[in-house]
Amino acid sequence: MKQKTINIITLGCSKNLVDSEVMLRQLQAAGYQVYHDSEQPADIVIVNTCGFIFDAKEESINTILGYTRLKSEGDISQLYVMGCLSERYRDELKAEIPEVDGFFGVNDMHALLSALNAPFREALLGERVITTPSHYAYLKIAEGCDHQCSFCAIPGIRGGNISKPIEQLMSEARFLASKGVKELLLIAQDLTYYGKDIYGKRQLSALLEQLTTLPEIEWIRLHYAYPVGFPMDVLDVMHNQPKICNYLDIPLQHITPRILKSMKRGGGGDKIRKLVQTIRNKVPGIVLRSSFIVGYPDETAAEFNELKQFIQEARFERLGVFTYSHEEKTPAWKLTDNVRPAIKARRAEELMLLQQEIATQHNQELIGKIMPVIIDRRENDFWIGRTEFDSPEVDNEVLIPVNDIPLEPGKMVMATITGTELYDLTATI
Fold first, then answer.
1. Across residues 260-266, what is the average pLDDT?
2. What is the spatial distance between Cα 233 and Cα 236, in angstroms, rounded to a whole number?
3. CA atoms 253, 259, 260, 263: torsion sign
4. Where in the chain is the domain with CATH 2.40.50.140?
5. What's the whole-number mean pLDDT along residues 10-28?
6. What's this model's pTM, rounded to 2 decimal places?
7. How many other C-beta atoms are found inside a 10 Å radius of the C-beta of residue 298?
8. pLDDT value, residue 266
9. Cβ–Cβ under 8 Å, residues 255 and 306
10. Residues spanned by CATH 3.80.30.20 within the chain?
């Protein structure tokens, strides 16, 4: 019998990517030839969707419609949709896009496998088809979220926080290490809440201590820390364990007390300022990535200017800015989305222009320093790598002229920083 082929298209965040990788491994074990985000012809396509904000939903729907056209033209035989958009709008999608053979939510992997005559294999728990470059991979340590931030649809889509046991995560990390992974990127909706549901207390520091014992793993990177209730013992582990990158992704969202209260973020501006300073004091040289929302309902010019002043003072090395997206079935849905789109866009642009200046100054301070760089790929006449201060796809890259230097992805080299190009660095070995 001809081996059937399946192509999974992943949209949205790295947490979705891990779900796709697990699904690929199960399908592979069932005898399918599997592809990921491939241009290769395939009999069956699965679109793993994002449904977080308007732009992501629009991208997901456009992608689905593109594959319905391919199905109508006979280029693919079956089309399935999974993930957050399916979880959030399953009934509406079924009615509007009947060409899709099945819609499956975020916890419906077993059902989708069954539809494809592929039994779920418990023995493969912890195994994945790695779709990132083989030297780094994401380690999802928990599902869902217990916080009720007013702007966020995630708890309604993925439910409350469910941590994976340390033993299970260690098994998965050992599998990744056996495949050549050198850098683990820890992800969850809130890393710092890890363990509270199954151990009765936050246990991120205990997990980190265990992960650092794996000899093949050289870097461990932390993404998505929630500021309220931040476990300070994590900072001690970061300071004492050289394998843990001096890098922390901690989305703060805003700084003014009224907006933070309306966002249901807890704490307040003064507590956030104190936390940022504490992190910098306890982990000298740490690089902080944060993200902020502009244009939240009733955000005044004065409140925006306070946020802008805070960013100027805090001098985050890495920063993302998002315009508020008014999402149904979130606590903020009852508010009036009354900041005009043009004002949202202008405020976002102002913050990013400010961040360009800050990032350029940070980069210029690195010129002349010798730093470890992990090589990700080659592009034309340059090896492209990253320092421990940079996460793949979202942060700075280091450009090293090839000059017949025999490198390869995953190689760790010592490089001298020679210059800056806005967000990126140039270097020589």
1. 92
2. 5
3. negative
4. 370-428
5. 94
6. 0.93
7. 13
8. 78
9. yes
10. 136-364
